[in-house]
Every structure is written in C-alpha cells, then in structure tokens.
Amino acid sequence: MEDGNTIGGSPDQESVGSGTKRSGASSGARPQNRKEFLHKFVDSKILTRKLEDWFESISEKSACKNPVFDVPFELIELQKFDYALEGVPFQQLIRMPNAVYASTSDAVEATAYLAIEDFLHASVKGLWEAFWSQDEPMPFSVACLYNASLKFYQAEKAIANGKLGDLCATGIMMNSRHSRGRWDHILELALLRPNLGRVLVESDQQPSPSVLGEALFFAVRMLLSRSLSRLNGVQNSNCVFVLLIDSQYGGVVKIEGDISKLECDVDDIYESAAEWIKKHSRISVSPIDRIWNKLGNANWGDIGALQVLFATFHCIMQFAGIPKHSIEDLAADHGSRLQTRRVERQLGDTSVNGGGLFRFQQRSVSPEIVEVQEEAVKIESEELMKLEVGSILWLEDSNWQKGYQIDEVLSDGELPYYIASPVEDPGKALFLYVGSRPSQLEPAWEDMNLWYQVQRQTKILTIMKQKGLSSRYLPQLSASGRIIHPGQCRRPSSGGNCEHPWCGTSILVTSPVGETVANMVSGGRFGFDEAIRCCHDCLSALSTAASAGIRHGDIRPENVIRVSSGVRHPYFVIIGWGHAILEERDRPAMNLHFSSTYALQEGKLCSASDAESLVYLLYFSCGGLVPDLDSVEGALHWRETSWSRRLIQQKLGDVSTVLKAFADYVDSLCGTPYPMDYDIWLRRLRRNIHEEDHGKEIDTSG
C-alpha cells in the first residue's frame, strides 16, 4: 500500500484489471463489452433486488429440504484437512472484540477490521508455509475494500483517514506493484456483517438474501475481472469463495460458473448478472459456525475456522498451483503422531484396529485387586479384531442375515480385503471389504481410507445398480450391511454402538473375483495379449460408467482384476470405485505414478483422465521404467518429459500399434474439455484381440 493516497474516487481500469488474453469463448460478449460491463457493475443492492424473487422461489421449492443450498465441503474432507493441519502454527495477534455490534464505538469496529486482516494473514501464512514453502516468501497480502471506489487499502490507513464506515470487505490478494490492488489478483473476499452468526445459529437458517446477494455481487466482479486478466496460470478461474463473518461466527459461500456465458448487456447490467446467476451458476453455502471465542482468539481446530481455512487453501491453489505437500501426505502423519503420543503416555502399542482407541475391558466384578497385564489386553483385542482364513462374519441388512467365511486375505497395497464365500454356498467366491467403525471419538487416518473403500464404494455401486448400468467389466454389488458381532450386543437404546470393537462396522460384498494386474505383473503373467484385452475391457467399463456421469478417479494395477474362473475367455474388471467422481465437488485419489496430469494440477478429472491413468497402468505393466517419484512437481515433470519424448508411445508401440495410437489420442485430449470417443477405440481394440477370443464373449457395452 502506498502512503499518501487519498481514499475515494471511482473504479478505474487499474482496479478492475485489463487485457483480453484469457477472454475465452463468449455468447456474444466481446472483451470490450465485459470491461465496460465491469466498470458499471458497482452496486450490490441493485443486484440483490433483482434476485429477491429468485431467492424466494428457491426457498419455497426447497421447503422440505433444509438447507436450500448444498454445502461446499463434505465432512470427510474437513476431517482429512484437520489431520493435515495438526502441528501447523496459526496465530492471530489482534484479538477479535466480542459482540462488536453491541457497541457503537468506532474503536471497537476498527479493531474488528484489524482483527479480520490479522486472521486472514495468519491463515494464508500458515497454509503457505505448511503446504507450499517455508523458504520462499509468501506472495500474498491482505487489505480492506473501500466501498466508494472499490479499491483496496490497509485497514489502518482507512481508519486514519476517517473512512472506517465505508469499508465493506477484506481480501487476500496477490502481491503486485499496484498500490490499490487489482480485482483479478483477489484470491478471496471476507464480508464483515453484524449479528450474522447469532441469528442463523438460533434459527438454523442460511444467510439472508441481502447478505447472499452481496456475496454474489462480489463473486461476479471477481469472475469478470479474472476473465479480463493478463495474469497467467490461474487454475479453475470459474470458481470463487466469499467468506461471511461477524465478530464470533463465520461461513463460506462458493460460487461456480462459466462467466463467458454472461450476456454483457451494458444497458441492463444487473438484470444480465442476475440471469447468469440463476441459469449458469452453482452456489454452495456452508453452515455458519463459531470461529472466535469470548477472548477473541480463533478456534483454529473447530469446524468454523476449519471450513474457512479449507476455502482459503483452495483459493491459494488456484493462484499458486498444486502444493508441494498434499493434504494426504500431511494427514498420513497423523498415525505416527498418535503413536508418539501413546509412547509419551506410556500406553505402548495397544491400539485397536489402527484406531488408536481402547475398548473397555469388561470383567466380572471381584472384591480383590487383580493385576491385569497390559500385554494380555493387547492380545485379546487383536484376536477379537483379526480376520484370518476360516473366520466367519455375519452381515445384517434390513431384512435378512447372511454369513461369509474368509477364504483368503488380500491387500490393495494399503488396506486389507478378503475373498469369502457365503456359508450356504461355499463354492461361490466373492470379494468382501470390512469398513471402519462409525462414531469413534478419534477416527484413524486408516479408517478414512476404509470409509472410501467400503461406505463410499457401496454408495457408488448402489447408484450404478439404480441407474441400470450393466457391464461384465464393472463389479456387481452382492450385499452390504453391518457386522453382527459375537456375544450379546449391548447397544444403547438411544442409538450408537456397544463396546464390542466390531459393533456397527460396515461390510461390502461384490463380485466377480479375480487376480489383480499388480499380482500378474509381479508374477510375469501380464503379456501383450493381456495388455490389449485389459485396455479394451477397462475402456468398456469406463464408457459404461461415463454414460451415467461417473468417473473412476483411482485407476491403478491394484484396482484392475483379471477374471478367469468359470469363464471360457478371461476378462478384466475395474474395481475400487470408492474415489469415483459423481459431481464437481468430489475429488479423485492422488497417485504420483497413475493419476492424470489434470488431476495432479487441478485436483479434478477431465474427460480423458481415467484413460490417461489407464495408459500409465499399461506402460508400467508392460515393462516401462518406474520412476522414483516423491513430489507432485516431480510427477508432473516426469509426465511432461515422457510424453514430449514419446517414451510412453514407443513402449506401448512395442506391444501393439493400436496401443501406441491410443496413447497418442489420449495425449491429445489431456486437459481439454473434449469428450472421449470410446466407441471407435473399443472397435479398434476388439479387432486386435487374439482371433480365438472373438465371439459373444467380447462385451462392448458402454
């Protein structure tokens, strides 16, 4: 910020951004029109009035659905993020004054703006050093927005110039030479609004139309400015976050949409903006939760501050790219930290099922003091939790009970799963997955992976079944439910689970059963014919799933099996659908060797992402050199080098010309919005499958 500048004036080109480099395709709105539109788009109250009827309409339509808008983040995402932030220092030095609007004192309100600036600074600094770099200087700053000019000034300067009452927001911005900030440099805006949380918490409602309208106004300005910007490298520029904050509570509003679809009618700008919001945007609103305690300190580990931090994390990623340390990497350290704590407390290694929790030892009441050996407790707990060949599990569904006997214990490289057979049909082989016990006070990181493996995969397979997706190359849901544990269940009548470590644990049973590609490769059983058949069958599965808007998101050798039992011609099936993408907010699994380039860069999938992962699977499985990767940057560099030097195409060309051509096709689609043409490649691959495999056994469904 440059000292001596007088606050005031009107919005100019410096504040709204300039240039047309990333204008994109527009429905009739030329860059010059958008620039004029943005220059005139300055009054949030007019836009809010244009949206009043729409707000009322969606509220009435959603009367039975509370809340009206979806949430921007799932609880499982926040839990994982919470684990990643363990040990990350956040320190707000300027305390938030309690109940700021209970007083009319300008000094109290001024302190509130200073506290918000300090809170945002502490947030972005802590996240930058934890995920991106502790050595490089933070490339962001924080300042307040002046309503009259829509330019940015530090709060201290505005207060000194007597303009406190005209401050309307606080923003995190990229550092630049522009003293009063540029709108295309804004990562995130926070709106300080009175009594926001108290009213919402008491009424269990979402923010009022006036507050939401103002948030949408600033979101549209940010999106327009980015579309006119010369700034390179902004990722996912069609998504912005606006924070809603008062002196105690806060929440997140996420707005997504293709701003190129905005009809920039400069004669009716607010009606045009309102129509774009109604027709082309997607709005998500988080619950309003407490951020600051009564002393004015931020509760960094609570849900209110956590969802604000998570939004800020996504904003930093838009401007700074994928972090050097992923959330998964940092969260994975939770288990070792938990074990260190147990050693500190001299508890030893007596964890149950990796969850770091004891189950209470139930013993008969005795008047004598009996010494209980800690090792005995450990052994008994492990025996209760251990599943081995011959173990029988009983599954409880809403209408029936069914038993399964464990025939083989397997692993996907991270978690165990099992081959089991129904007690009443011992000759039938099925895959059985055992999930985590719900409602633990301290769920382990491994349990979150189990949640994806069992609970979420159950959801995906159920959706596939409901949508009528039929393909032999997709797994079939055989059964799902909860374990019936041995002994008497002492589950409380109010709900929840009893003290038995199996109580409430979820089970998923699927078919068919086969050998993973990972095992085939390690045993030297994955040849050229298998590679072509694998590519065809996996593409067919992906095509069928894509027809229902489902993408896999975790293609790797452990998640593809070869089915050979009971069939004339073996075939491949894609399993492990727990990380599948159903909607925009879902995130794929991150794998340095097999994730697509777009997934590593954006944390999302494009239409060709699963196919790109399939190419990597075939490349490595056919003898491609496996690089030693330890960071996202290294993984992206390897991909860029391998594709540009055509190493992947050449290796697959040694197997088959059609696989080489397929790799070239996938390379041309990576990162683009163009859809995969599955049919043409299924036909070409089918022609290259060994002659004896032709016939009705080949299913090209999809």
From TrEMBL:
Q: What is the protein named?
A: Protein kinase domain-containing protein
Q: Where is this region: Disordered?
A: 1-32
Gene3D superfamilies the record matches: Transferase(Phosphotransferase) domain 1
Bias type Polar residues, positions: 12-30
- InterPro entries in the record: Kinase-like_dom_sf (IPR011009)
Per the record, the coiled-coil ranges are none
